[in-house]
Amino acid sequence: MSLIVKEAGKAISRADERAPISSLLKANMRKIFPDHWSFMLGEIALYSFIILLLTGVYLTIWFKPSMTEIVYNGSYTPLVGIHMSEAYASTLDISFDVRGGLLLRQIHHWAALFFMAAMMVHMFRIFFTGAFRRPREFNWVIGGSMILIGLLEGFAGYSLPDDLLSGVGVRIVAGIVESIPVIGTYLMFFIFGGEFPGNDFIPRLYTFHVLLVPGILLALIGLHLILIFYHKHTQYPGPGRTNSNVVGFPLFPVYVAKAGGFFFIVFGVTALMGALVTINPIWAYGPYVPDQVTAGSQPDWYIGFLDGMLRAMPPWETVLFGQWTISWNVFIPAAVMPGILVGLLLAYPFLEAWVTGDKREHHLLDRPRNNPTRTAIGVMVISFYGILVINGANDVIAITFNLSINQLIWFTRIGIFIIPPLAFIATRRWCLALQRRDRDLLLHGRESGQILRLPHGEFIEIHTPVSDDVKAVILSKEDVAPIEAPPATDENGVKTPGLRGKRWRAKLSRAYFGDNVAKPSAAELEEAAHHGHELHDHEVAELEAAGKHAPSTLTPDSH
Ligand code: HEM
Ligand code: HEM
Predict the structure, then answer these.
(1) E strand or H helix that includes residue 499
(2) Which residues of the chain carry a pLDDT beneath 50?
(3) Residue 26 has what pLDDT?
(4) Atom 14 of ligand 1, residue of closest alpha carbon
(5) How far apart are the CA of 311 and the centre of ligand 1, in A?
(6) Residue whose C-alpha is closest to residue 94's, from 115, 117, 63, 73
(7) Contact 234 CB / ligand 1 (< 6 Å)
(8) What's the pLDDT score for residue 552?
(9) Which residue's CA is the nearest one to ligand 2's atom 24?
(10) Where is this region: Disordered (predicted)?
(11) What interface predicted TM-score (ipTM) does this complex get?
């Protein structure tokens, strides 16, 4: 036995001489990572992706990416004798005839929904805490691209079974491609290998779904994680945490154990969902037939906002020279708007840095209230997105709540211009109110609800000072001055180049920082500490004369 161990040890050192992994591991495994529950969101995205890879490989063994028509003869009797594509029939086989097939299919689908949800909530965490600021802007761009690619990958997978529900989705995509002016029809023929639906689409989509996109995602996730390691993780403000240190636990053994355990929890929950909750029962929809549509058909949740945008658009069309139709009703919501939204998403870190003029490195996270405009922009975008998702399900909502679908469409058309700005204003005011509360907490302590009556009859409210931990968190706020507009000419009378642009930028910057409530200065804190921690001499004397003691840990605040 000891000989085997010795030989194995020798083999490892020989391997290590050729590929010096141990020194690399030694240097990095003790790296410190900060701790917070919200840092688990990125992990959920990562583990869901691993589950997708594992279950996806299992599905490839039986799935037949072919649109060749066959007559079904499997064990799901209601469809026996029906004409369908091999893709649809093989998905039925996976569901009813392959051992564990339905379970793995359902785990794959649930993992896809969790993957997209985890990515999005992870993105919100990054956004609201300002974790995308320098030096992590590029990692934000990688993340944003992964959302877009994940969305395409999910749509591709959802379309593979060639059932009536997914076929309707593919038909919509064909329509969107056709709506692109000039090249639309050519592009549609190129993608589908001829008229819709043709025979080539599912095999092409299959290569896209199981090879091309997973490969790209794998590379991007690898790069994303390497960059996180390289930049080090940001941390939330707290006692002893600064922009230049990291307070937390070492990667090995603490995080390796935690992350390993968490992977099994995510896998367990996904497997439980796959085992207990039906998802995408394609046998109930039937095979895709181009002239049929199922009532109440809904895409997976992450596509809902696109569908909502499409459904809200008025029926605008232009016919050029009496023969070329431009379908604005499809082109704008399904091609132009998504392009603009993705562009803004990817550019956000750079836009914010331009408006604030803040190009410094940030390793300490912002509290959302301390950056009211950013937080308000985030909530505004979420409300915009939410309205579109609701409209994407307007037929189902109309039937469930006995409403008219037209009412819902008009609610969306008007609401989309009114609700997001209201959400912006309300959030901004809310953040500023929280800033004011923080300032009050530092200067006057917490209202204890205890009222003290002084012997001469006056009532004072007792305020307890906040703990040092809370103080450290509140004091982490940075008060940044807005950018000033340069003078029209310099001291030699030379006109400032690009004056108009610079004035605009200064205006935006002022609007961005707007009514920021400055945190108390050191002098104000000193004054408050001096003033607040003891009762006035005459009050103490009064209490003592009455045979009472002033509460020593409490701070009265009647002055
Ligand atoms: C496949 C999808 C993704 C995976 C597997 C993933 C994974 C992770 C993990 C494990 C972390 C460290 C833990 C944490 O902070 O949550 C992280 C951090 C980060 N992620 Fe992602 N992420 C994904 C998508 C995204 C998206 C969509 C964005 C933004 C648009 C993004 C931007 C970032 C940034 C900027 C950090 C650094 C955060 C910091 O240091 O505080 N990621 N990601
Ligand atoms: C981000 C990664 C992925 C996402 C979001 C995703 C999503 C999906 C979805 C939603 C379906 C429809 C499932 C259903 O029938 O209800 C599907 C089907 C499928 N996926 Fe994926 N998938 C991913 C990665 C993979 C990988 C890596 C493979 C293979 C290596 C794979 C192989 C398949 C196959 C063969 C099907 C068709 C079988 C079926 O529908 O049951 N997937 N995928």
Answers:
(1) helix 499-513
(2) 533-534, 553, 558-559
(3) 73
(4) 39
(5) 32
(6) 63
(7) yes
(8) 52
(9) 52
(10) 523-559
(11) 0.95
